[in-house]
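Q: Entry one of two.
A:
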Amino acid sequence: MMAKNKEPRPPSYAISVIGLSGTEKDKGNCGVGKSCLCNRFVRSEADEYYPEHTSVLSTIDFGGRVVNNDHFLYWGDVIQCGEDGIDCKIHVIEQTEFIDDQTFLPHRSTNLQPYIKRAAATKLQSAEKLMYICTDQLGLEQDFEQKQMPEGKLNIDGFLLCIDVSQGCNRKFDDQLKFVNNLYVQLSKSKKPVIIAATKCDECVEHYLREVQAFASNKKNLLVVETSARFNVNVETCFTALVQMMDKTRGKPKIIPYLDAYKTQRQLVVTSTDKFEKLVQTVRDYHATWKTVSNKLKNHPDYEEYINLEGTKKAKNTFSKHIEQLKQEHIRKRRDEYINTLPRAFNTLLSNLEEIEHLSWSEALKLMEKRADFQLCFVVLEKTPWDETDHIDKVNDRRIPFDLLSTLEAEKVYQNHVQHLISEKRRVEMKEKFKKTLEKIQFISPGQPWEEVMCFVMEDEAFKYITEADSREVYSRHQREIVEKAKEEFQEMLFEHSELFYDLDLNATPSSDKMSEIHAVLSEEPRYKALQKLAPDRESLLLKHIGFVYHPTKETCLSGQNCMDIKVEQLLARSLLQLDHGRLNLYHDSANIDKVNIFILGKDGLAQELANEIRTQSTDDEYALDGKIYELDLRPVDAKSPYLLSHLWTSAFKPHGCFCVFNSIESLTFIGESIAKIRTEASQIRRDKYMASLPFTLILANQRDSASKHLPILRHQGQQLANKLQCPFIDVPAGTYPRKFNEAQIKQALRGVLEAVKHNFDVVSPVPTIKDLSEADLRIVMCAMCGDPFSVDLILSPFLDSHSCSAAQAGQNNSLMLDKIIGEKRRRIQITILSYHSSIGVRKDELVHGYILVYSAKRKASMGMLRAFLSEVQDTIPVQLVAVTDSQADFFEIEAIKELMTEGEHIATEITAKFTALYSLSQYHRQTEVFTLFFSDVLEKKNMIENSYMSDSTREATHTSEDVFLHSPRGGALTYNYYPDSEDDTEAPPPYSPMGDDVQLIPKDRFDLEGNEYPIHSTPLNCHDHERNHKVPPPIKPKPVALKPNVKKLDPNLLKTIEAGIGKPRKTRTTLAPSDDLDQSDNYAEPIDTIFKHRGVTDDIYAIPDDSQNRMIKIRNSFTINNAQGDEENGFPDRMSKTHSERRPSKYKYKSKTLFIKAKSYYRRAHSDASDDEAFTTSKTKRKGRHRGSEEDPLLSPVETWKGGIDNPAITSDQELDDKKLKKKTQKVKEDKKQKKKTKTFNPPTRRNWESNYFGMPLQDLVTPEKPIPLFVEKCVDFIEDTGLCTEGLYRVSGNKTDQDNIQKQFDQDHNISLESMDVTVNAVAGALKAFFADLPDPLIPYSLHPELVEASKILDKTERLYELKEIVKKFHPVNYDVFRYVITHLNRVSQQSRTNLMTADNLSICFWPTLMRPDFENREFLSTTKILQSVIETFIQQCQFFFYSGEILETSDTLAHQPPPSNPVQMVDPIIPLQLPPPLQPQLIQPQLQADPLGII
């Protein structure tokens, strides 16, 4: 070899790797590792290292260019840099022996020498021999790198002798060592360097290695290198050492022990592995693939180093493990999320502790699956388990896999959930207990800090249990409640003192004196002092209230969306649109009709007779009228017909009118009943909403001579019914006719129908054809207070339910128009509905003919606002006061309501106003006719009001205010003369007093002008005459005035009768006051002054019958002008003064005693130095007002509301009947004084207006032994207890009447109906339940046991009393007993929730005792025991367990034992002097054979 400095190229060496080779018999199952050693040295990268190299080849592979028919392999060359920095190239040759795979004998080659000699050869030659890479290369040389052995020949420079020191495969180590020894002998001959490579030292056998070392030690310069091709340990060292031995210039070779070399190599691998794993951990997406990541990392040095050391396969395995870890981490994270979400799912699906407290985990799972929200919380997968499905990748799907619940973790979460509910329940209970503790501490005031209160509750059990944060939260909530309540009460107090604020003009600013007065008055109120610690808030509320008072708008109303103006506009916009749309459809084609559809209603064949008469006057059903031909379609309906008009009303036949023909009291009664039933069915069933607007015409049939004597009575009562129905009455024409019906009657009736149809069309016509819609005969303002506890629909229903209601002019969103017959003409009345705060400007600046002032009898603030409003209203303007409450029973049962209703009646009495009441639970108080008398009074005073307004307008400066009315240019003159003093005399006394009277002055029923009965509180207009007459001289009779031209002449017989009854003929005649504003029950000329008149004062009363209606009209003499001054002092200016039009009307403030006292007290506070007498004057006498209620509970009001409303002329013309009536009344009074009357059975008619085979049936027909409780009662009670047991005001707050009816109607149709599916309120169901008991033929508590209950309640000893009551209950009919027990048990459960629903046993008994006991409010004995009976029901509710379930007696306040003895309700008012009736009328002047009044008037 040439020297290095003379060799331009690095030196090249050829090393031959030799060792045991041959057949399996020679070398065993595996070789000694020659190939692996060469492979690791030439191609050290892990990916290029092949652990398997076979020596068994096919002949083809052996003959290939790689093997090339040789028994040696050329592995290629390696350029190696030595420690001295000198590079060299090392060619590697492996000497082996290839075995034929067929014969398993060595292949035949060119060199036939044995292996020992061939291996020791130093010169090798093989043309075009290719480099060997791996076994797979054989036969596929073109797919691998092709590199030829240089020049086809090599000279061997050294030998690497391989000895396998591992446990051989079927090979004896001694045999191998013997072979090596022989081989070494041959090698020694070549004089070439030799190094022993101990292979497979990673699996080394120690004594084998020692033997090798011993073998080498016996040889000269023979080194042993311990190697491991698998782990690449000392592989390069052995070749380097051999090169150093071949090149003496390189120095002595350094041999490293195997263990040291192994540690160094493993440390290198470990370091590289750590770097690679860190590199791999940068991948965070477990969806990443090895291909993507390897391409991304292939240029990274750490990646390349690891690939070289460990290979791609290990790198991929490491990556796969990382990806699997990422996936498992993701699954674990999702599992944790699901586990953390489970409590929320359990709270949603299993929130009821009582339901799940004792359920096992499997039972809870089944329960959850049944929940409606199950699918929102859980998902049931088709494949399980969930962590092996794609659900783990649905990050947005937060639903929990249901199979996760089968794990122990989920079950543990469920158990924790149950325990949490238990502890939370306890915590809530303790918080509520602590809240109740705070509520019991009376000295806690609004705004008081917690620190001041905490010391008083330190020892409280609940306080000790809850946390500090909870206690502060509870106290904060308690403070919010009491502060909010105090502010509400303060605001309510401000409204109650409205008279303090509403005495200045709008847009004014209160002076400092005014503010001082306000504070001085309010500071006395506890509700003012309650906000002492919140003085800034209190002052802010006060200023806000004052600001609203002086600058009121609906936007700034303190009631917000409950502002009356907003609610009225919404209701009118909705209701009037429906009304007008419906009427327009009904009468759209009625402007020019050619065919007229007529119903004819009659009895005993009269309807058919009238139809025959009309057909006789027609030609082929065509009737000529006023030059036009009409086709008539007549449908007579007889009393015996099974069909009513409502049943015959179809879409194909809609009548234009109805002729009602009568010729007797019976037939008139039939007509009244039929019309009432038609109208009731139309309003309730609403088959056709405007069937109620059907025009009726009353026709009196001619009489035979024998029956003509009844004609005056029939004429009078027919006219009365026509007035009530607001329809024409066609009398029998003068003269004699052979037929029952006259042609003039028929034509007049047809004209009336055509005019009615045309009027209905004009009402809804877009362009008015009769007169401008802006023109109204009367302008009425209805005022109501914002926030009052009644619906706007209640107070507007009298107008909206009327068929004559229509929308007002455009732009007037709070007004409506009424067309009503008042007097003898149809009038247009504009009703504007405003809140009191919006009415202030109207009161002071606009022309108003009358006020309807509504107030809630449940709210003192409503009364306060009414008083404040009245204080500035002129006394020339008529006023109608309307009290609103739930039912008439409230007056008897609730003292506050009684006081407010009584106060309202006092005010009405003192200011000469009308007073009535509306009941939210009764539909019979929602009719337009409630205000008919008021409208008549307003119309009568219209001229005076307008003259007064015009006089004020010229006297006062113009005030700018919001226009509420569109003024009409015309004055609206009346058709009759005005009688100035008529408003004081034409009002009748009250029809009924719930507190009782010694003398029943008039029939107790009250009726309107359209045939509808309504209980009404009326106030006599002349009740103050006794207070002013004693201060003036006796009045002088006025001069007679000419009669009205349109008044009919009086019947001479009737006039004689009346004069005879009065006993003193009159020398003069006076103008009759219009009779339309009279109470229709005023059947006597009643001089009220005779009751209260002071001795020595006389007053003449004229009683003159109005021939148009045969009624008595009272006309009081007017005062003289000389008395004007005295009247002015009393607030009653002289109405007959000649300067009447020039005087300024006084205000009701100075006329009402109630208002006077209020104003005086305020004035006294502000001017303590002024004399009361100087400040104000008042009357010396004061009359106690009486509440005049309707007769009975509205739920028990009769349906045939028209009955009894027709005045009987016999009262004014039949002395015999009048005498009988007087005797009957006298006898009744005497019997009341001598003995108690026996309690009568009171069976009120049903409140329903539809036929039912369930409701109204006897209780025994509705139950069976298996089901002792009526199904409807069970459904209602279950619904209430499931959904509304905690509803505030349950059974007290009235539900929607329509919903109550719908519940019963639908139950009638389907007993299996579910109340939950009907979308009705709890209060509606409660109302339907009460109505069920109200409709029973007999009350649930029999009348026969009422006296026993009363007597038992008087027992003083509580225990004895309760046992006595228990014995009485056992006397109930078994059916009644079961139902009564069921109802009382239910009410007991309701009372147990009184903390929430505010319905204590006392409150429930107040609401339920009239329903269960059905009292007769006409019977004074019942009135005297109402409180006792109510307390009996309260006891039943409280002691429910004792009475029905053998429980112990509960300790409660003994309400029965402390009942005051029942007092006579008559003593609640001043005694009334018996009325001195006029002498009986002469019977011979009237037909003597009149039968008893079939209409129930007498």
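Q: Entry two of two.
A:
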Amino acid sequence: MLRRPKPTDSEADLLREQEHFLTSGAPSAASVVRRPDKRRGEAGEGEGRSGENEGSQRDVVTIEDLPDQLPSLTPAPPKKSRFKASRVTFEDEDAEERLDRHDTHVSAVLSRIVERDTSSTPISLPAFTGMAFPKVLHRSETSNQVPLSSAGGKKSIFARQIAPQKLKECKTTLHSSSEAAPTPETSMDTDQCDAAVEPAAVSGPRLVSGQGLRGPDNSGETTRIHMENQAKLQAMSQSEILEEQKKLLSQLDPRLVDFVRSRKAQSVPSFPSPSKHPKDKSATEDPPVQDVSRESGSCSAAVLCQKPQEVEMEGEEEELSAPPPAVTEEDLPVKPQKEWVHMNKLEPEKLEWLRDLPEPRRKGTKKAMQARFDFAGTLIPPTEDLPTHLGLHHHGEEPERAGYSLQELFLLSRSQVIQQRTLSLSTLANILSKARAGEYVSVLKGSVTSTLLDAGLLFLLRFALDDSVEGVMSAAVHALKALLVCAEDEECLDCTFSWFRGLASFPLLPSAQEEEDEEDEGLDESMKETAKEKEERKSDHEVARQDAVKGLLKMKLLPRLRYILEVVRPSPRVVQDVLEILTRLARHSSSSATQVLDSPRLMETVMSEFLPTSWSPSSQSIYGLPLSSAMKLLRVLATSGRHACARLLNSLGASERLSHLLSAEPNELLLEPTESLRITTEAYRLWAIAAGYGQACKLYMDLYPALVTALQSVHRLPPASDPLLPLQLQRFLALLSLLTQVTHTAGCHQELQAGMVSSGGEECPPPPPVSWGHVTGLQTSLMGHLKGFIKNLDDPLQKDGSLTLIPVYLVYLEAYYHQLSRQNCFKPVETLQELELLTSDVLLPLMSHSVVQSLIKNLKSSSVVCNAQAIPLGPEITNNLPGLACTGWRNRPGLVAPSSPFPLLTGLGLLLETITGIHKDLSSKFTGLLLSEPVTGYLRSCSQATPSLSHTKAWLLRHEHHLLYLLLLLAHRLVPLDSEVAKHASLYHQVALVVLPWLLPGSEYLAHELLSTIVFSKDLISEGHSGGPEAVELGELKLHEETQKDTSPSLQTVGALLREACVQLPSIRGCFLTHLAHLESSVIVSRDALLGHNPWIKSHLLPELTGPILPSDWPFLPLVSLYEQAGVSDGGGLAVEELPQGALQAVTHCLQWLLLLEVWREEALKVVLPVAKFARLSCVFLCSSDLFLERPVQRLTWGLFRLLTRSTKLDSLDLNVPPPGLASFQDLYSALVSQYEAVSFGDRLFGCWVLLPLQRRYSTTMRLAVFGEHVGMLRSLGVTLEQLSIPIERFTSPPEDSLPLLRLYFRSLVTGTLKCSWCPVLYVAALSHVNSFIFSQDAAAQEVETARHSMLRKIYYLTDEVLRSHLLLFRLPQHHLQLGFDMYEQLPPIRAKRLERVLGLQESSVDKGD
């Protein structure tokens, strides 16, 4: 056993112990490592060097598991050196050289030693005493020491012993200078003090000490200088003193001024005295808030909260306040006693907190202030003075302001004190709840939620979930629930569950963001990383920044939540929060729902603890009782896919739970009344989801008696004043949704049975256990219920409940009759009679009822499409955490509000579409609905609307699209039958064209049906058979007579082209359907969902919301797809030599459709920018070398060109804006010009297309390209001014100001590249610009003026007389003249003088040269 060294050990003992240690072989407590010197290279480089270099290396002792730097316990601002900022350093400067330059050898210091002159220094001998040695100073002998309080600061015993001597010297100095009269001194900061009060302040100088002066009387010299200064000050007036002071302050360095003031501040406390000046009011106020950016950079905590929230206070700027006076013993509320430890010295910095808080600022300020919140998350106004007992005041940066900032809450959440961590997390949860509700939108700049997420809130909460203290963990769960879950969003989704296709929903995925992966560029497809590999390679922070839910799942949130539920077994509130968090995670996507299902023991814990098969009502804990939130979690998980639903029903025992919960009445479940209603409602919804897949149908036959009993209780609804009424209504709505899905599934039984027999059961799914005969018995009773509810509309107390239930009955009846028409047992005659009775007894009375009529009047105000721009400020929605923005939906008009007619009209439209398809004669009975003023006005508003797309609107827009589609189908049936409806045919067609590019993923079948039936319907394009083409011809003829323009080809051909297009409408429809064939699989999936083919449905989760199904420029689709197949390749040539078969016909049909829309449905194409139209039509010239030469293509393209270049449309054609899908228009134009040079053969149509972008108002780049790189094309660009149909003034005005382009114009004219017979349009344009340039009188730079003179001289000496006269005598462009421009007979006097002056200058310069 080794022993520790002792102080008595000699060196021999230590060496002996060292030898013993080395022979024992015991491991050492510290290891010696040789670290490489960064300035001298790596460690291995010095091995072969001499011993001198080896000796220069140092031994470094390190201890294992000890970090190099101490961890920062509390965030503190980095220390900054005052001198480092003034030094100039360079990046490439060697640190060793800089060290050698500043840290030289000691000889350099010793060589510069200069002995001080001591000849005049007085020598004082020590006093002689009778003692052999000086007396030793004992601590007890402190009579002559200065007390600690008056000595100021922390001083040693020796310093306190010397202090009395300094005081004596100071008194001697005062006595020697008492002859001088005391005068007030004016300091640098304009504070004037009385000399009688502060004698020391005026007896000598504060700054000049005399140190360094040689001579015996250095102190007298400083006194003499001081007295001269005082005499000068006495001779000056107060105004002169202030003026000199201002002059000094303006000339001196601010740091020097601060130094002088600090010297004065140090000298004043040594002689304390009360000031005679009154207190300034601003002195009691707090200093202004520091700049937020500076504040955020000063401490590490600010990194967590990069942009603290700021509240605006309008008002006047607050004046700068003086610092508060120093704390004295009299100011303390508690006087320190001598017996108290360490209270013999006053510490002003610490005692500041014992004073009363300064009052909050009363004046307003335009400066943004940091937002502060109370513990409930309420924003505290900066001017509010709250009492301190609320606990909102703390030792922060603004002690007078109550509340906590986000930055301070982040710091508290990492505190060592449990209560502080819990309090901060609870406060953050309250702030998040209010922020998600939109309470801060109008009062704060920026978004609280996004600021917290950027600061790392997800990681903070995830770390807090791992806290061993249950209180902190519970607060973290609550904060995470506040971040992820919005209760009102969930309420809205629950309310729309019973609507048509309400059980389907969009995944709450963030908008897809394209990422540029430079690493994969140039690699083969097999070498590139897959999306899953890229996701795994990302860090948690990168994933969370793009998708908060994915980030949480990557941080192992699910195992922790399972541990909390299974092991911690927290309070009921925490359990509810955890279940709601799991529900939100399941709504994110099907993959997230699968992760929840696959998480070990998570769902087993939920099923066993919160959905038990048996329970006791006397349980004190929430464990062991069925919870509605747990059942809702199962329902949302089942929505993600049929396989997940089957796992829940079979493997996890959800089917058994449904039997236990739904076989009895809610009041028999031994639960609280509200909870029993909620859990049975969620059980019906889960069952409806399963029935929507064709599953759990055997349960329908087992629980049929319980379902009938539940249906019979619909007449026993509680009164309107009962708080349980909304829950009862939701329960009945869920039950009817279940019956609707079971009816759809039973209707598919016969088809599946036949398909299984024919296909041998290989591809066709098995038929469900329930057949059509099992569901037919419910229709009669439900019809009776519906009639009763219609009668109840007259009762004001039952009106609201009836309006809530009637739409679901209508949806059920639509499902019943739709499936009935597909059965073998369908009896047409009996069904037609039944439908007539339904119409006369139910539908017509319902539509004509005053309550329904007043409800329909809210159609426009409840619409999302019509009110896209008028939506109020909503909640905070971040990109990585999308939501539905349903805050306050009950109190404002909207699609889901109680006053909305959308559920009723959608159910009615579904039923009308089905019964009019079976009984076509019933269609005419419903014309009143379409012709009603609210519906017509609503459709007219929709035709003018341009709604935006986002998660907050998509889930509502989907339901509104259903209603618009149903109204259009009804109109399509009624237009041929009713003349009054036919008058609005163009409106219906316009709405159909507008709605088509709005349709969202999941509605592909609606888009297919619109294209197949309505969009290309001759009945809805009424202009085609009511003299529309003839009207166009007459209008163009009138225009021709007014302008007297001999256009070629004539615009009168547009009428004939329209007439031909109307005949070709069926072929045009086939063309577009062919080009949309790639959507066939999506159309089939959408059709199965919308038509109720339940056994074929894979998931009730809609496709990811990436955008509408069709692009807004879908009418150009055949052209664009043809260009992509056969267009210009990267090398500049055509990708293929020959066009695909049928390409000419497809392009012709596309151009016919575009011409028809441009003439008669111009509003439908308003979403397509004119530059986008021009770019898409350019594909006609780019996709082939001769397609534009075909006769039908030529005629149609000419017509479209005339329409695009009408005088009313030219100004809106802005080619400086890049077209959608292109980086810039210049790239497209470069391809056009190259194609024109290669294959145009001087075609006039192609020439007009190339000339259009050369107008003066467009970019100079395109004109430079034509006259520079592609100047050869001017030989074949023979378009006349009449053929162009664009005023020549658009090419010539305003005058060109680009000198390179003007030189190119001049060169092309002089060299003969540009001639009037070859290119009339550009010849006139070049003449006009060159003529304006050479005769311009505007002042210009020397280079421009030299170019003018040079051009003018060269023109004068041209040998081509015609060109010379054109350039000199050009006057104005005139399109009706043969040349295209007018000329002067002779030069005007001003121009002649300029010419003479320029030529005279040349002659004089030549003479000087001679």
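A: Comment on entry two: The longest strand covers residues 1370-1373. The chain has 66 helices and eight strands.
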